[in-house]
């Protein structure tokens, strides 16, 4: 039994997860050593050592969730617990959260900080997947099958936006909508949801106009100004994006060499967090960027493949939610640092510095590995049961007697 289980794990996706985490650890050291000394007065390996501890803890959580059966998450008590934990954690942030980079997104626990909005993604993925998998028989009934879980999603996104953390709120909303679209609803039901969303925006538009200055603050509008005209606002709003362009352009095909970045010397803010890909492009060139993109792309596509193979709707939606979260977050991070979309302050999965981020990703990757293991195990187990047991060959005397009986019958 144990050998069958161990043989059923998808070791390719596990290997890519470990490789990306280790690569990210190396790049965090390279990108943060100057910042740690010059800006904070820390040792050069300060952020490297902290991330190393984060990764070790994350690996332990990964192993636990890779072994723990994912089907247990459908338990009603467990679902109530994770939803309450998510809501209470977000309320705690709004009431007495720690402010960093103009966002009240963290709770200080002794010497460490946690970001409840990151853990809320786990609650959203598990809760929506479990509830919609149970509602398959009436999933197209709007009042009974669709709206109750959707209200939870909207409420969680609202609390995250109140911090304010619009990037994480957008990612959480997109994750939830992806699970809803893939839950088995008819196209007509999805269009009804779209119409309800448009109606809600129309109802809230007067409030948005009245509270325009509070909602669209100078800092938020500055991000749009830096996005639309980075070089015209290069001394203020566009400063970060312009220096990201310089880092990307300097790297070329092969890069300047590991540790040889110029932009990390104080020119590019958040070099070891949101803009770490710019440092990768500068030091390792197109080859380093390709390594990260191929790794992230493989995890996303492999996760979607795992979803298509799952006979269990809950497992399929879990795999879809996890894969899409990694894909959406990667797109938003890379789009911001390349000027494709406005900067949102979202970390690059597995690569950027951050304890809450790597812990959440490790938990979700463990769940994805467990879904894949169950798929493979059930397929192999059913295949073994389906193979007919071969009959024993008759012994020579029996065969002779049978042949003799056939000869007598023929005569």
Order of strands, main sheet, comes to 1-2-3
Helix-strand topology string: HHHHEEEHHHHHHHHHHH
What is the approximate shape? globular
Strand content: under 5%
Give the count of helical stretches: 15
| Class by alpha and beta content | mainly alpha
The number of domains: 1
Can you characterise this structure?
It is a single chain. By secondary structure, this protein is mainly alpha-helical. The protein has one domain (2-381). The protein is built from 15 helices and three strands. A hairpin with a 2-residue loop joins strand 1 and strand 2 (103-109). 41% of the residues are buried. Mean pLDDT is 83; it is low at 392-411.
Give structural attributes:
mainly alpha; 15 helices; 71% helix; 3% strand; globular
SSE topology sketch:
Elements: H1 2-8, H2 11-38, H3 46-67, H4 76-96, E1 98-100, E2 103-109, E3 112-114, H5 116-134, H6 142-161, H7 166-181, H8 187-210, H9 212-215, H10 218-228, H11 239-251, H12 276-309, H13 313-337, H14 355-386, H15 396-410
Antiparallel strand pairs: 1-2, 2-3
Summarize the structure.
The chain is mainly alpha-helical. Helices cover 71% and strands 3% of the residues.
């Amino acid at each position: 039994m144990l050998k069958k289980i161990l043989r059923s794990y998808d070791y390719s996706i596990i290997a890519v997860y470990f490789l990306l985490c280790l690569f990210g650890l190396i790049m965090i050291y390279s990108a943060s050593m100057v910042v740690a000394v010059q800006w904070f007065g820390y040792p050069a390996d300060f952020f490297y050592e902290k991330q190393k501890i984060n990764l070790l803890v994350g690996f332990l959580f990964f192993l636990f969730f890779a072994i723990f059966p994912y089907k247990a998450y459908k338990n009603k008590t467990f679902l109530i617990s994770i939803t309450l934990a998510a809501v209470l954690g977000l309320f705690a942030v709004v009431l007495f959260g720690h402010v960093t980079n103009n966002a009240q997104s963290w709770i200080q626990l002794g010497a460490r900080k946690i970001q409840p909005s990151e853990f809320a993604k786990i609650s959203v993925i598990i809760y929506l997947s479990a509830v919609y998998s149970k509602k398959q028989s009436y999933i197209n009934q709007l009042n009974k099958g669709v709206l109750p879980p959707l209200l939870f999603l909207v409420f969680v996104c609202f609390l995250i936006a109140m911090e304010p953390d619009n990037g994480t709120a957008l990612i959480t909303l997109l994750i939830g909508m992806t699970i809803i679209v893939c839950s088995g609803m008819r196209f007509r039901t999805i269009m009804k949801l779209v119409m309800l969303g448009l109606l809600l925006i129309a109802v809230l538009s007067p409030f948005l106009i009245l509270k325009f200055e509070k909602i669209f603050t100078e800092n938020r509008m500055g991000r749009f100004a830096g996005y639309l005209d980075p070089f015209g606002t290069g001394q203020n709003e566009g400063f970060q994006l312009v220096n990201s362009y310089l880092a990307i352009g300097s790297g070329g095909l092969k890069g300047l060499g590991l540790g040889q970045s110029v932009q990390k010397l104080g020119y590019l803010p958040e070099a070891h967090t949101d803009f770490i890909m710019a440092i990768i492009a500068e030091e390792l060139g197109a080859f380093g960027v390709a390594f990260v993109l191929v790794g992230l792309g493989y995890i996303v596509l492999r996760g979607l493949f795992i979803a298509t193979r799952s006979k269990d709707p809950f497992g399929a939606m879990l795999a879809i939610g996890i894969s899409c979260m990694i894909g959406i977050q990667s797109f938003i991070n890379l789009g911001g640092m390349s000027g494709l979309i406005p900067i949102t302050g979202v970390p690059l999965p597995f690569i950027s510095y951050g304890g809450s981020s790597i812990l959440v990703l490790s938990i979700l990757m463990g769940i994805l590995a467990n879904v894949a293991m169950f798929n493979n195990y059930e397929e192999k187990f059913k295949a073994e049961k389906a193979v007919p047991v071969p009959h024993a060959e008759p012994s020579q005397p029996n065969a002779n007697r049978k042949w003799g009986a056939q000869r007598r019958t023929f005569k």
